[in-house]
User: Which sequence fits this backbone?
């Protein structure tokens, strides 16, 4: 199946019932398939007039009880930052797909990786998942919806031209085999309900519009009752909780795979489609007797610091592989630098590394 189609099937398997999107290559197949598939399962498809309409429609649908998603590509993701900030502030669960492309051209890149974390205004946490295959476009989209619903946050699926327009085998589990999370609902009547009073995970229960739970969803600082309240303590409590519900549960949202890391003197760190040539290079190096391992980051934000630090403790050298100018390498250096030498292997030419290019970097440190 085409990668973009597999992502749609993952969204539907997770219960997505609202999609809003505006045409942009190389994400168009997502909207095209959603337009056909959503009505067939009782969902709603909205052809938006622009990306702002898309992100705000998705946020509004989420507040009405929908499992909502939008999809765009890098240039369109720029326009969604204001809406991303709003969704984070009002804690509206939703999924945003960014099929990364080079500026103005439909070639492969991972250049949006920092914007996904820091693009919107204000203090917030966002979870970003980085699939590396057509199968993972399905699997990680299911996981994105589950994390969004469990923690009431926007979750970003960091796709890429490389895998979005690729065809590979896809296994779709039976519906009963897919774990599905649903948002917590109020257990008290409307008159006793505090809309931003959290549970033990730091997540407030969430009613839907129209159920009698009258809530003001404002970007402004607000207290547990949802009242706009500019008070330093109120503001601090609000953003510390919004950040803390993810920071305190990093292990629950992290997807990290270790390959041959136990005995490795050299550890590669890769995410997204760059995992593919990195694995090929690792296998080649090990066949030649080199002590090389690989850490695959399925979650890039929040940074899986525990796994990165553990890999660096056991290794002499960490090689960060990216398809940009070395942006995420700064995070790898921050965590691994005190423990091992960190080297950056970057490529910013519209295509992923070849296995040979990464292998050459391994040889330089072996």
Assistant:
């Amino acid at each position: 199946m085409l990668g973009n189609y597999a992502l749609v099937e993952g969204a539907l398997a997770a219960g997505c019932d609202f999609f809003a999107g505006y045409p942009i290559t190389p994400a168009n197949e997502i909207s095209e398939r959603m337009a056909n598939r959503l009505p067939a399962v009782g969902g709603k498809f909205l052809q938006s007039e622009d990306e702002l309409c898309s992100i705000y429609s998705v946020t509004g649908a989420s507040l009405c009880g929908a499992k909502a998603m939008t999809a765009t590509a890098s240039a369109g993701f720029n326009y969604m930052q204001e809406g991303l900030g709003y969704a984070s502030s009002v804690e509206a669960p939703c999924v945003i797909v960014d099929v990364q492309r080079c500026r103005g051209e439909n070639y492969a890149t991972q250049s949006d990786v920092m914007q996904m974390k820091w693009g919107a205004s204000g203090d917030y946490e966002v979870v970003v998942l980085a699939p590396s295959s057509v199968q993972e476009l399905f699997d990680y989209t299911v996981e994105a919806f589950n994390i969004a619903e469990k923690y009431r946050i926007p979750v970003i699926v960091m796709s890429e031209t490389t895998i979005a327009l690729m065809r590979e085998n896809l296994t779709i589990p039976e519906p009963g085999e897919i774990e599905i999370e649903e948002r917590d609902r109020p257990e008290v009547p409307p008159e006793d309900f505090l809309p931003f009073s959290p549970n033990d995970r730091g997540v407030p229960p969430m009613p839907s519009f129209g159920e009698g739970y009258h809530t003001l969803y404002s970007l402004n600082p607000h207290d547990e009752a949802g009242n706009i309240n500019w008070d330093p303590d109120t503001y601090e409590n609000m953003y510390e909780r919004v950040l803390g519900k993810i920071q305190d549960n990093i292990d629950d949202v992290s997807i990290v795979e270790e390959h041959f890391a136990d005995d490795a003197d050299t550890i590669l760190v890769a995410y997204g489609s760059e995992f593919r040539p990195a694995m090929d290079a690792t296998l080649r190096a090990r066949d030649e007797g080199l002590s090389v391992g690989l850490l695959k980051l399925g979650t890039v934000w929040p940074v899986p610091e525990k796994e990165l630090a553990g890999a660096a403790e056991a290794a002499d050298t960490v090689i960060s592989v990216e398809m940009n100018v070395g942006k995420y390498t700064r995070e790898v250096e921050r965590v691994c630098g005190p423990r091992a030498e960190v080297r950056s292997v970057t490529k910013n030419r519209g295509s992923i590394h070849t296995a040979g290019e990464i292998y050459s970097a391994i040889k330089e440190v072996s």
User: Anything to note?
Assistant: The two ends are 39 Å apart (CA to CA).
